[in-house]
Design a protein that fits this description.
CATH architecture of the largest domain: Beta Barrel
Number of helices: 29
CATH class of the largest domain: Mainly Beta
CATH topology of the largest domain: OB fold (Dihydrolipoamide Acetyltransferase, E2P)
Structural class: alpha/beta
Mean pLDDT: 82
Oligomer: single chain
Number of domains: 3
Largest sheet: 7 strands, parallel
Distance between the termini: 25 Å
Low-confidence stretches: 147-157, 513-528, 663-677, 727-733
Radius of gyration: 30 Å
C-alpha cells in the first residue's frame, strides 16, 4: 500500500526534536497526519469571552480574558527575610466572572510589565483553590494583539481554536504547530467513496481539515464536523463489516437439537412458561446454531430478564447435537453460582453417567483455578472424553492443558470483564470455530452495540419473567439528614423480621495495607475527604450497633474460594440475615429471598454498576428495596446521578445517562481493547443516525469489494485510524 508521504512525515522532521518529543509523550502524536487529526476542543470568538464562572477544579484549562487589575505585593520569606519576596496578583475577567492569577519570585517580572489592565490574552494553567477562590498559579499566557506578527489572531482568523492541551504544551503552541503542517492537508487521501460523499453533500477531507483548524465562520466548523464524523463512523464500521464478512466465510458444525432429546426433556421439566422475549431470542439463537458458519451473537438483557435460561437452552441444544458447551464467567463466585443454578434447573438431566441419571442426561462440570488437584483432573478428563456436555468455569478454562472432545458453543457471561484475547483463546479450542454467544446485563444503547460489538448480531431481552417484583429505590443523604440512615437500618431489620434478607454493599474491603500513594491521592482529592467505606469496618459497626442480634456475614474478593462459597451457601439457605459485601455480588448472584439492599458511598459507583447491584433484590415474589447512601451535597453531579438511578428501573435509559456523563473515549477505548479510542468528533449517543447509516454503507461496500482494492484512501484510513492493538481487537472480536 502506498503511504501518503506528507502525512506520514515524522513530526521531529517538521517541528524539531524537542517539540516532537513533547507531542509524542504527552499527546501521543507522532506524524503530521496525527497532528492534523488533533482537533480543537472548542473555539473562542474574538468579541466573546469564555465563562470563567464555570471552570472545573484541578483541570488544565485555556481561557481568553481581559486583565482587570494587577497588584505587586512584597513580603518576607525564608529566602527573602527583608521583605524582598514578591507576589504578583492579576485579576482577569470575561464578563461572567473573575479569576485570580498569581506569580511568585523571579516569575513576576515579565507578567508585571505585560499584563496591564485592559490587556487581552490567552491564559493556560491548572485551576486550583486558594482561600476558597479559584486561581491559576504561574499560568502560561499569550498576549492577543492585532498588530504583532506572532499573535494568535493573525493565524486564527475570527475564531480562536482551543486545543486539548497539557501543562507542557499550551493550546496556542499546538495551534502554531498545526499551522506549520496545515498545507500537507491538501495531500490527505479521502477514505469516503466519492458517490457516498457527494450523495450526502459532504466536503472533501482536505477541505474539512482546513475548516476545522482555520474556520472563518461557524458554518465552516459545522461543515468540518459533519464530514469528520462520517469518516470516523464509516471507517470503524468498515473494519467491523470486514470482520463480519470474514467470519461468515469460516466453517462451523451446524448444531440442531434432537426433536426428543435433552432440550425437549428439559423444557418438559420447566415449572413455568418462557416469556415471549425468551422464545423469540431462543429462536434467533437456534437459527444461528443450525448454520454452517459460526454464530456471533450478543445477548443483552435487563438484570433478571432470564438470560441464563436462554443460554442454558442453547447449550442443551448443542449437547443434543453431539457437541459440548462452555460457559465463561468473570469470577469464581459467579462460576459457582451458575454451576449450582444450572444443576438445580436440570435436576436428573445433569447426572449423566450416574445412577438415577435420566435417559438423555449429560454431566455438568465446574472448572476454576482454586479447585483441588483431584477434582480438577477429573473435570479435565470429563471434558476430553466428552463425558461432560457442559462446563462452567472462570479463565481457568482457557489454559492450554484444558482440552475438549468437541467444543460447539462458547457462552461468555459479562463480556466487558474479559479481554478479547481470553475470549479468543477459548474459541480456539474447537476442532472448527465454535459458535459464540456473548451475554451482558449492562444494557448498551443501540449505537454503542453497533460500535463496540459491531462484529456481533444483537438480541435483546427486555421483558421481565412473571413473578419478578418491582424495586423501590431511594437516595439516603447521610450528611444532610443522618436520621435517614438510622431509618435505613430500621428498614433492614423490618425486612429480616418479615422473614427476608438484605445486602449491604461497600466500595472497599478494609484489610488493605496502608498505601502512602493512595493516602496522598485521597488527601489531594477534594471529593474524597475520607477513604471509601469498607466491608470489614461496616460489618463490625452494624453487628455491634443497629443490626445487633442479626446474623451478619462478609463476602469479598480476597477471601479463600471455599470460604466465599460457604458464605454464599449460608446466605442462599437463609441462615445469614445480612450479607455485607463488595461488588463481588454485582452479577449473577440469585437469592430470591433477599429483598433489601443498602449501598454505602453509592456516589463512588457508576450508574450501570448501581443498576446491576440493585438487580440482586426483588428476584422473588416480595417487593425489593434499594437505598443509595451518600454524603454528597444535593447540588453535586454525583447526587444527580444517584437521583437518576433512583428514578428509573430502565437499564437502557440509565446507560444513556451513564454514557452522557462519561467521555466518549471510555466507550470504545480501554474497556474493550486496551487501545486508544479512534473517536474524536463522533458522539456515540448523539450521532445515532450517522452510525446506523454508516453501518449500512459499510456493509454494502465490503460485500462488493472485501479487500477494498478500489478504495486506496479507505485502506489508508483503516490503517491509520485502527492502531495495531485495535486491529488485533477487531481481528479477535
Amino acid at each position: 500500500m502506498d503511504l501518503v508521504p506528507a502525512l506520514e512525515e515524522p513530526l521531529k522532521k517538521v517541528l524539531g526534536p524537542a517539540t516532537a518529543k513533547v507531542m509524542a509523550e504527552h499527546l501521543g502524536l507522532h506524524s503530521v497526519g496525527d497532528l492534523l487529526h488533533h482537533y480543537p476542543r472548542r473555539y473562542e470568538e474574538r468579541g466573546q469571552l469564555t465563562h470563567l464562572a464555570d471552570l472545573p477544579l484541578d483541570e488544565h484549562v485555556t481561557v481568553v480574558a481581559q486583565v482587570a487589575d494587577a497588584r505587586l505585593h512584597s513580603f518576607a520569606s525564608a529566602k527573602a527575610p527583608r521583605g524582598k519576596g514578591q507576589r504578583l496578583e492579576v485579576t482577569i475577567t470575561d464578563g461572567s466572572g473573575r479569576l485570580q492569577l498569581v506569580f511568585f519570585g523571579s516569575g513576576v517580572h515579565k507578567p508585571h510589565k505585560e499584563l496591564l489592565p485592559g490587556t487581552r490574552a490567552m491564559f493556560a494553567g491548572k485551576v486550583s483553590l486558594f482561600n476558597r477562590r479559584l486561581q491559576l498559579a504561574h499560568p502560561a499566557y499569550e498576549l492577543l494583539r492585532g498588530d504583532a506578527e506572532e499573535s494568535v489572531e493573525t493565524w486564527a482568523g475570527a475564531l480562536i481554536p482551543i486545543y486539548p492541551a497539557t501543562a507542557k504544551l499550551e493550546s496556542w503552541k499546538i495551534g502554531k504547530a498545526i499551522q506549520t503542517v496545515l498545507p500537507s492537508a491538501q495531500e490527505a487521501l479521502d477514505p469516503l467513496p466519492e458517490s457516498l460523499r457527494e450523495g450526502r453533500g459532504l466536503v472533501t477531507l482536505p477541505e474539512a481539515l482546513l475548516k476545522i483548524h482555520r474556520p472563518h465562520t461557524k458554518a465552516d466548523i459545522a461543515d468540518a464536523h459533519a464530514r469528520l464524523k462520517w469518516d470516523e463512523a464509516f471507517v470503524l464500521q468498515v473494519a467491523l463489516a470486514r470482520r463480519r464478512h470474514a467470519d461468515a466465510q469460516l466453517p462451523a458444525v451446524p448444531r440442531k437439537p434432537a426433536p426428543d432429546g435433552l432440550l425437549a426433556a428439559f423444557d418438559d421439566r420447566l415449572p413455568f412458561t418462557l416469556t415471549d422475549g425468551q422464545q423469540k431470542v431462543s429462536k434467533e439463537i437456534f437459527d444461528d446454531l443450525a448454520t454452517d458458519h459460526p454464530m456471533h451473537r450478543l445477548l443483552q438483557g435487563e438484570v433478571g430478564s432470564g438470560k441464563t435460561m436462554v443460554a442454558l437452552r442453547a447449550m442443551l441444544a448443542v449437547v443434543d447435537a453431539g457437541g459440548q458447551a462452555a460457559m465463561l464467567a468473570p469470577t469464581e463466585v459467579l462460576a459457582q453460582q451458575h454451576h449450582r443454578s444450572v444443576v438445580e434447573m436440570m435436576g436428573e438431566l445433569a447426572e449423566g453417567g450416574m445412577l438415577g441419571g435420566a435417559e438423555h442426561a449429560t454431566k455438568v462440570v465446574l472448572l476454576t483455578g482454586s479447585m483441588g488437584t483431584a477434582a480438577r483432573r477429573q473435570a479435565m478428563l470429563d471434558l476430553v472424553t466428552g463425558e461432560a456436555g457442559i462446563v462452567i468455569g472462570t479463565h481457568a478454562l482457557i489454559e492450554d492443558k484444558v482440552q475438549f472432545h468437541d467444543l460447539g458453543l462458547v457462552v461468555v457471561d459479562e463480556q466487558h470483564r474479559f479481554g478479547v484475547e481470553q475470549r479468543d483463546a477459548l474459541r480456539g479450542k474447537g476442532k472448527q470455530p465454535p459458535h459464540l454467544l456473548v451475554m451482558t446485563a449492562t444494557p448498551i444503547p443501540r449505537t454503542v452495540a453497533m460500535t463496540v460489538f459491531g462484529d456481533l448480531e444483537t438480541s435483546v431481552l427486555d421483558q421481565l419473567p412473571a413473578g419478578r417484583s418491582p424495586i423501590a429505590s431511594h437516595v439516603v443523604p447521610a450528611a444532610d439528614k443522618p436520621h435517614f440512615l438510622s431509618r435505613a437500618w430500621e428498614r433492614v431489620r423490618e425486612e429480616v423480621e418479615n422473614g427476608h434478607q438484605a445486602y449491604v454493599v461497600c466500595p472497599r474491603i478494609g484489610d488493605e495495607e496502608d498505601d502512602p500513594k493512595k493516602a496522598r491521592k485521597s488527601a489531594e482529592d477534594e471529593a474524597e475527604k475520607r477513604p471509601p467505606l469498607a466491608v470489614l469496618e461496616i460489618a463490625d459497626q452494624l453487628s455491634k450497633g443497629p443490626l445487633r442480634g442479626l446474623a451478619v456475614e462478609v463476602l469479598h474478593g480476597r477471601m479463600h474460594p471455599d470460604d466465599k462459597d460457604a458464605v454464599m451457601r449460608r446466605f442462599a439457605a437463609g441462615e445469614t440475615h445480612v450479607l455485607v459485601a463488595t461488588t463481588v455480588i454485582e452479577v449473577g448472584v440469585n437469592v430470591p429471598n433477599a429483598t433489601a439492599m443498602v449501598i454505602m458511598d453509592a456516589d463512588r459507583f457508576g450508574v450501570s454498576q448501581l443498576h446491576q447491584l440493585r438487580g440482586r433484590v426483588g428476584r422473588g415474589s416480595a417487593a425489593g428495596l434499594c437505598l443509595l447512601v451518600t454524603e454528597m451535597p444535593e447540588a453535586s453531579p454525583a447526587r444527580q446521578r444517584l437521583n437518576a438511578v433512583a428514578s428509573t428501573l430502565d437499564g437502557f435509559e440509565l446507560s444513556r445517562i451513564d454514557l452522557e456523563q462519561r467521555r466518549e473515549g471510555d466507550v470504545l477505548g480501554q474497556a474493550q481493547s486496551g487501545a486508544r479510542t479512534s473517536l474524536r468528533v463522533l458522539a456515540v449517543i448523539e450521532d445515532e443516525e450517522i452510525i446506523a447509516e454508516a453501518r449500512e454503507e459499510a456493509t454494502a461496500v465490503v460485500e462488493a469489494d472485501p479487500e477494498l482494492t478500489a478504495l486506496p484512501g479507505l485502506r489508508t484510513a483503516l490503517d491509520a485510524l485502527l492502531d495495531e492493538e485495535r486491529e488485533q481487537y477487531l481481528e479477535k472480536g
